[in-house]
UniProtKB/TrEMBL annotation:
EC number, as in UniProt: 3.5.4.4
Record bears the keyword Metal-binding: yes
Molecular function per GO: adenosine deaminase activity; metal ion binding
Species whose genome carries this gene: Armadillidium nasatum
Annotated Gene3D superfamilies: Metal-dependent hydrolases
Name under which the protein is recorded: adenosine deaminase
Cofactor dependency: Zn(2+)
Length: 416
C-alpha cells in the first residue's frame, strides 16, 4: 500500500499546470551565456557561467525595477534574432517537461524582442536606466517584426511539443506605458489563436493611470472579449488592491497575474473569493520584486496562505525563473515549508486547469489526465463559479471536496 501511494505521489507530480511564466524570463542561463559570448557582448564578473547566474538574481528585494534589471543584461543579444528566439522557446518546453508540467501558458511581449526596441526596464517602468551591455547591433534583419517573433516562438514550441509530453500555449502581452503596441498585439492574438495563442495580458507597473490611458485599455480589452480572446492581466503586484479591482471591472480580466494586494481590503477580498476570481501566485518572485514587503498590512504572512485557508481560487507559478533561480520544484518546496500539503497542491493544479484558456475540448482532456494522475474519479458536473464568464462550466469533477488546513508560517521564515 505504501508503494502504491508513493507511485501515485510521483505520478501526480508529473502532471502540474502552470499559468504564469514569462518566456523571455525563463531562458536557460547556459543559453544566455552562450549567446552573449557568441555575439561578443560584455559578460559580468569574470565572464564565467557562474558569474552570469549570480548577476541574474536579485538577492535583496527592493522593487520591480530592480528585479527586472537583469533583462538589460541579456535581452539585447536576443532582439531580432529569430533563430535564438525559436531556440529558447523549444528549450522552454523541454525544461517544463523535466519539471513535470503537463500544461503551461507562457507569456511574451513580442515588441520587446524587436531589433531596435528600448530596454525592457525603460519601457515597462517608463524611466531612464543605464544599460549594462554595449549597444551592439544583434541583427541586420530590419524586416523582423512582432509577427515574425510570434511565429518563431510558436515554431520552437511546436518542435518542443513533438519531442516532449508538455503542452504549451502562448499569451501575448501589452505594456501599460506603450499603448501604441497594444492594438497590434490584439491583432496578433486574433491571427494566431488557432496556432497556439490563447490570450492577452497587460504588464508593467500596475498603478492607476490617467483617465485617457484607462479608457484606451478599457476599449482594448472590451474588443478582446468581443473577439473571444481570453484575458489574464497583471495587477496587485506593485500597486494596491484598487488596481486589482480596476482590471476586473474595467478591463474584464478573467484571471489576475499576482494580485497579492487583494487582501488589503477585506470586503473586496471576500468578494473575489466568492466570485472565484483566479490568482496566479508566484511565491519567490513576489518576495524578490518587493511586492510582499510593500503590502500595507501588519501581518508578514504571504497572501497565498490566506487564499489557501479560505479556499480561494489560485495556482502556483514561477514568473521569471531566470531571475529568481527557482523552478516549480523550488516553488513547491518553499510552500511545503509554509505548511502546504499535497491536498493543497492538488487543488491548486485543478484550479489552474479549470481556469486555463484552452478550448473546452482540450480542457476536458487536460482535466481527464489530471484526474487519472491524481487517482480521482468523479462524473459529476462542476461549475467553477466564475460569475463573470459563463464559459467556465466544465464537465467532470476532480477537485478535492475537503478544505485542507494550512500550518501557517511567516514569509520572514523563508531562507535561501
Amino acid at each position: 500500500m505504501i508503494d502504491n501511494f508513493l507511485f501515485l505521489f510521483i505520478y501526480a507530480n508529473c502532471f502540474q499546470v502552470e499559468l504564469h511564466v514569462h518566456l523571455d524570463g525563463a531562458i536557460r542561463p547556459e543559453t544566455i551565456w552562450e549567446i552573449l559570448r557568441k555575439k561578443q557582448f560584455a559578460l559580468p564578473g569574470d565572464g564565467s557561467l557562474e558569474a552570469l547566474k549570480k548577476s541574474l538574481i536579485v538577492n535583496e528585494p527592493r522593487d520591480l525595477l530592480l528585479f527586472l534589471q537583469p533583462f538589460s543584461l541579456y535581452h539585447p543579444a536576443f532582439k531580432g534574432d529569430l533563430e535564438a528566439i525559436e531556440r529558447f522557446a523549444f528549450e522552454f518546453v523541454e525544461d517544463q517537461s523535466k519539471e513535470g508540467v503537463a500544461y503551461c501558458e507562457a507569456r511574451l511581449c513580442p515588441h520587446l524582442l524587436l531589433p531596435d526596441s528600448p530596454s525592457t526596464v525603460d519601457i515597462i517602468n517608463n524611466v531612464e536606466t543605464p544599460n549594462t551591455v554595449s549597444h551592439q547591433t544583434t541583427t541586420n534583419n530590419s524586416a523582423v517584426d512582432p509577427r515574425k517573433i510570434v511565429e518563431a516562438v510558436l515554431r520552437g514550441i511546436e518542435r518542443g511539443e513533438e519531442k516532449y509530453s508538455t503542452k504549451v500555449r502562448l499569451i501575448l502581452c501589452c505594456i501599460r506605458s506603450k499603448s501604441d503596441w497594444s492594438w497590434e498585439t490584439l491583432d496578433l492574438c486574433d491571427e494566431f489563436r488557432l496556432r497556439g495563442v490563447v490570450g492577452i495580458d497587460m504588464v508593467g507597473t500596475d498603478v492607476p493611470g490617467a483617465d485617457e490611458e484607462i479608457a484606451e485599455a478599457t476599449r482594448l480589452f472590451e474588443k478582446a472579449k468581443e473577439k473571444g480572446i481570453h484575458r489574464s492581466i497583471h495587477a496587485g503586484e506593485g500597486g494596491g488592491w484598487k488596481c486589482v479591482k480596476q482590471v476586473l471591472t474595467s478591463f474584464g480580466a478573467e484571471r489576475i497575474g499576482h494580485g497579492y494586494s487583494v487582501i488589503e481590503d477585506e470586503d473586496f477580498y471576500k468578494e473575489c473569493v466568492e466570485k472565484r476570481v483566479h490568482f496566479e501566485m508566484c511565491p519567490h518572485s513576489s518576495y524578490l520584486t518587493g511586492s510582499i514587503k510593500a503590502l500595507k498590512l501588519p501581518s508578514k504572512r504571504h497572501p497565498i496562505l490566506r487564499l489557501a485557508e479560505d479556499g480561494a481560487s489560485f495556482s502556483i507559478s514561477t514568473d521569471n525563473p531566470a531571475l529568481t533561480g527557482s523552478h516549480l520544484t523550488e516553488e513547491y518546496e518553499l510552500l511545503r515549508t509554509w505548511g502546504f500539503n499535497e491536498a493543497l497542491f492538488t487543488r491548486a493544479n485543478f484550479e489552474a486547469a479549470y481556469k486555463c484558456f484552452l478550448p473546452p475540448e482540450e480542457k476536458q482532456e487536460l482535466l481527464a489526465e489530471l484526474r487519472n494522475a491524481y487517482g480521482i474519479i468523479s462524473e459529476n458536473e462542476i461549475v467553477t463559479n466564475d460569475k463573470t464568464d459563463s464559459s467556465s462550466t466544465v464537465t467532470g469533477s476532480g477537485l478535492p471536496s475537503q478544505k485542507p488546513v494550512v500550518n501557517i508560517a511567516s514569509w520572514e521564515d523563508k531562507t535561501y
